[in-house]
Design a protein that fits this description.
Elements: H1 2-13, H2 24-33, H3 48-62, H4 67-78, H5 91-105, H6 116-123, H7 129-143, H8 153-159, H9 170-175, H10 195-207, H11 211-216
Helix pairs in contact: 1-2, 1-5, 2-4, 2-5, 3-4, 4-5, 7-8
C-alpha cells in the first residue's frame, strides 16, 4: 500500500494523471502483489521477483485482466529490483519501481511532498519492513540457492551472510569459466588467496604507495580500529564545573 501511494506521488511530481497517463488500477495491483514471490505460495525455484511475477500474472488472469495488462504487470514485478532497466519499460513499470525503491531504500524521498511520508507511515506503520523483507529473501535463498544466482540481488544478500569466499563473486566466476583469461589493466592487481598472503601483499602495496591495493585487502565494510589505548581526558574539575572525565 505504501509503495502505491509513493508511486502516485512520483507520478504527480512528473505531471502524470491517473486514468489519463497511466493505469491507476493496474499500478495498485502491481504494488500490492510485487513481493508475492516471498509468500509460501509464491516460493518456487526462480528468484523471488520472477516467481512473484508468475504468481501475480496468474492471479490477474483468473480475475479477467486482459493479456496486455498482465504483461505489463509481469514486467513491473519481475523488474522491481532492477535499477536502470525498469524505467525503460514504460510508464507503469517505471512508476512501480520508483514507489517501491522509495519505500524500501528511501530513493528520491527528498522529492516527496512535504509531510507525505509522515502521513503514510502514521496510517501504514513500517514494522521494520526492510529488515523483515531481507530476512524473507535470505530464508528462501538459504533453502534454495538456485533462487539467488551470484549476480542477482538475492545472491548479493546471500553472499553477505555466508563465510567469506563461500559464494562466488564476479571475479570468481571469471576464474572458474575455464577459458584461461588473465587479469589485465585495473584488474591485474594480485589478490590474497590465503590469510598468510595478506601480510606480504600489505607490505608490497605499502612500499609501492598503492593505496587502492591496500584497500583491496579489506572487506568493503571493514573498519580500522587502533590498538593503542587512548589517553584519558580530564575536563575542568573546578568546584563550579561538573566532572565529565571519560576514557
Amino acid at each position: 500500500m505504501r509503495s502505491f501511494v509513493l508511486a502516485r506521488a512520483h507520478a504527480w511530481k512528473q505531471g502524470l494523471r491517473a486514468g489519463a497517463d497511466y493505469d491507476d488500477e493496474l499500478l495498485f495491483a502491481i504494488c500490492l502483489l510485487h513481493d508475492v514471490g516471498l509468500s509460501e505460495e509464491g516460493n518456487g525455484d526462480q528468484r523471488f521477483e520472477v516467481d512473484g511475477a508468475d504468481v501475480a500474472a496468474a492471479f490477474l488472469r483468473e480475475h479477467g485482466v486482459d493479456e496486455a495488462r498482465v504483461a505489463v504487470a509481469w514486467d513491473a514485478i519481475a523488474l522491481h529490483t532492477s535499477d536502470g532497466i525498469a524505467w525503460r519499460k514504460g510508464t507503469l513499470v517505471a512508476l512501480a519501481q520508483a514507489g517501491i525503491a522509495t519505500d524500501i531504500l528511501g530513493a528520491d524521498r527528498e522529492s516527496l511532498q512535504v509531510g507525505l511520508a509522515d502521513e503514510v507511515h502514521a496510517l501504514l506503520p513500517r514494522l521494520d519492513l526492510a529488515s523483515a523483507l531481507s530476512d524473507a529473501i535470505l530464508a528462501q535463498a538459504t533453502a534454495k540457492p538456485q533462487k539467488a544466482s551470484p549476480l542477482s540481488f538475492p545472491g548479493e544478500l546471500l553472499r553477505r551472510h555466508l563465510p567469506y569466499g563461500a559464494y562466488p563473486s564476479w571475479y570468481d566466476l571469471l576464474a572458474q569459466a575455464g577459458w584461461g583469461d588473465k587479469p589485465v589493466g585495473l584488474t591485474a592487481r594480485r589478490r590474497a588467496e590465503t590469510p598468510q598472503q595478506v601480510g606480504a601483499l600489505f607490505m608490497e602495496y605499502l612500499e609501492a604507495g598503492d593505496v587502492e591495493g591496500l584497500v583491496s585487502l579489506y572487506e568493503p565494510s571493514a573498519h580500522f580500529v587502533s590498538s593503542r589505548r587512548p589517553e584519558p581526558i580530564w575536563w575542568d574539575r573546578t568546584p563550579s564545573a561538573r566532572p565529565c572525565g571519560r576514557w
